[in-house]
Amino acid sequence: MNGVVSEGGSRLSVSTEDYLKAIWAVGRGGSASTKEISEHLSVAPASVTNMLGRLQEMGLVRYERYRGASLTERGYREALRLVRKHRLIETFLLEHLGYSWQEVHEEAERLEHAVSDLFTERLAEYLGHPGRDPHGDPIPAPDGTMERQEARPLAEAAAGERVRISRVDQSSPEVLEYFGERGLVPGRRLRVTETRKLDGVIAVEDEEGNSHTLGAPLARSVFVEAD
Amino acid sequence: MNGVVSEGGSRLSVSTEDYLKAIWAVGRGGSASTKEISEHLSVAPASVTNMLGRLQEMGLVRYERYRGASLTERGYREALRLVRKHRLIETFLLEHLGYSWQEVHEEAERLEHAVSDLFTERLAEYLGHPGRDPHGDPIPAPDGTMERQEARPLAEAAAGERVRISRVDQSSPEVLEYFGERGLVPGRRLRVTETRKLDGVIAVEDEEGNSHTLGAPLARSVFVEAD
DNA sequence: CATAATTTTTAGCTTGTGCTAAAATATATC
DNA sequence: GATATATTTTAGCACAAGCTAAAAATTATG
To answer: How far in angstroms lies nucleotide D6's C1' from the CA of residue A45?
Structure first.
């Protein structure tokens, strides 16, 4: 419906879209610093400063020198539309084209900038309007709103608690593969059998009675909800 | 950073790819003039001259000033890989996402520059390795070779001849729609009932006994093979 | 074949997006 | 509060691709 494509307003450049997504990803709700954005995008800090000026000019971010940047209403909507595209594309690649979790990311990163809104909505339909992608991350609605996510890291769960995996952090392919191989994927039900304060190790048991022992970093990469 | 980074060698820019496809499309086998390319891409002639220099530098075209440009072996392979992507994507959009013939073109034009080779081959598999797209155009093989096309324009058929539609010219959406509405699509069998030299009008009858009378321009937009 | 028309190239400018090095500001530490 | 460290900005530059206007080469016409 709206948006860049159908109403003939000129499209945002790939770079512009990358910055919006970076600001959204890095400054969750609040504001993002030049350095954070620069690292997230692997771009020199000076380039970020430069681009933030332009983005403000375009009305996509609010920006005060030396104080970081945050998304305007419009910038936020654009960012979430990107996230919607990204997650729907990932879902398609994983479920229908036989991609592995490692292969998916790079492809979606490129395609999200190329597909139209028409494509996106047709794809959503084709996929049965999923509410979450295969990582368990919620897929924003076409209007740029997103379901609140109330999952906590498994690391924060208490012994004896019963939980359901809602999401696995996507940032590291190795971590993703580790969990995938052990069936620790979104939807999986677990019981927390032990939590050790000293080293942050946490032990869980799945529905088939298998135990898994996770060090602190791994336990912070799985997000769970009460079950 | 211009669209770079992926499988192995650095990617060609979208512009570069557009030029290669234009040279392929415009100078079928032979060479393409600055003006032809300029018109095909809606770009100023001076910009074409400029780009042809760069493309030669990259080893993708052979170019002599004032004499036009032609694709090198490598340029030709790249162009055909693009065509393969384009036609597979079109097939997917039409067959699985419910696109109309009008909507398809623009989307494929953007996506062909964004999808990886992995995506392309997975998609081909998903579609059952089709040899032709829904327009009847042959889909080049992954190695950049393409089946010879021996279809002639319907305009050249003789009265009484039995033919099969092999392809409909894609250049005009209106023409496409006209034929689509009447079921004159690739695969359709026809009998030529009349050919009129004076005005080039040609009449055909389809398998259901419907007659169609086509003026010369339309008769030159449908390509047929002997049946 | 000389001149007119067309096509192509050259020259010089613009915009978007990146970079580095140096200067300015903010934050942290003594 | 003064100074050291870290972050951010400014200034100046590069490169891909586009543009226009003027010059040059090619092709067509009388």
So the answer is: 13
Residues 6+ positions from A30 with CB-CB distance below 8 Å: A70
Minimum Cα–Cα distance from A127: chain B residue? B97
User: Parallel, antiparallel, or unpaired for β B189-195 and B162-168?
Assistant: antiparallel
- pTM, two decimal places: 0.77
Q: Can you give the distance from the CA of residue B69 to the C1' of nucleotide D28 in angstroms?
A: 23
* Residue A73 structure tokens: 């209403």
Q: What does the alpha-carbon distance between residue B180 and residue A27 come to, in Å, rounded to a whole number?
A: 51
How many whole angstroms separate alpha carbon A180 and alpha carbon B226?
55
d(CA B16, CA B34): 15
Q: How far apart are the first and last CA of chain B?
A: 52
**Same fold for the pair B14-71 and B73-149:** yes
The answer for residues whose C-beta is within 8 angstroms of residue A13's C-beta and 6 or more apart is none
Q: What is the pLDDT of residues A144-198, one digit of tens each?
A: 788 766 678 898 888 888 999 888 876 666 787 788 889 888 889 999 999 898 8
The CATH-assigned architecture of domain B14-71 is Orthogonal Bundle (1.10)
Which residues have Cβ atoms closer than 7 angstroms to strand C? A 13-16, 18, 41-44, 46-47, 50-51, 54, 66; B 1, 33-36, 38, 45-46, 48-50, 52-53, 65-68
Tell me whether A99 touches chain B (CB under 8 Å). Answer: yes
CATH top-level class of A3-74: mainly alpha
Q: What is the ipTM of this complex?
A: 0.77
